[in-house]
Amino acid sequence: MLLFVLIFLNTNVFADTCNQIPKKGSKNFIIGYGSLMEKESRTRTNKNAKNVKPILIKNFQREWGQRSTRYKITFLTISKKVGSSVNAVYYPLSVEGILKLDKRERGYCRSKVKAEELDFFNKKVQTKNKNFWVYAAKKDNILNPDEKHPIVQSYVDIFLNGCFQIQDKFKINNFANLCVKTTKGWSSKWVNDRVHARRPFLISNFYRIDSLLSKNFSYYFDNKIE
Fold it and tell me: Which CATH superfamily is domain 7-225 in?
């Protein structure tokens, strides 16, 4: 599940521009930084969403801070923070595809990102007459992980597998590490809900994911297994 929260000084800055329908004939791109980073998760909703490229969103901060009360999980969000940046992906999508994705992200607000806040990993990309969209949470506050709403490994695996996919495809050596470093709110309130938690061989890139996370978090292998 992709979650985008764009909040500045605890105010929903996109409250009046939520889910605008793109003009007919316009060129539109979705920016994904959570589950939409991974090909399998992304194409589950939009089968043609295969042509992704890396991007940096300037003046935004990714963090664990959006809760699902139904499933008792804390997901990733993104918030406005001057001087910060978040690595992500972007890909073209038709208006029909966007409206379909809106249903998947129906709890969120699809909003435009300004051209000056986009960095295409130092490559020149024409942004004129193009719309770049992200999904912003409608809530006005960020709630960090706790015992009842932990980070769950199955979601982390999707996120970081997507990061490794982009790293390998575009030969950006530190892309997956950047995913971790530009994400705030990591917490020991984190459970390992992998189907085979002690033998995770069916998880794509499990060894790379575990190696990366254990280097960054001393408690990683002590996370509770559910």
Answer: Gamma-glutamyl cyclotransferase-like (3.10.490.10)
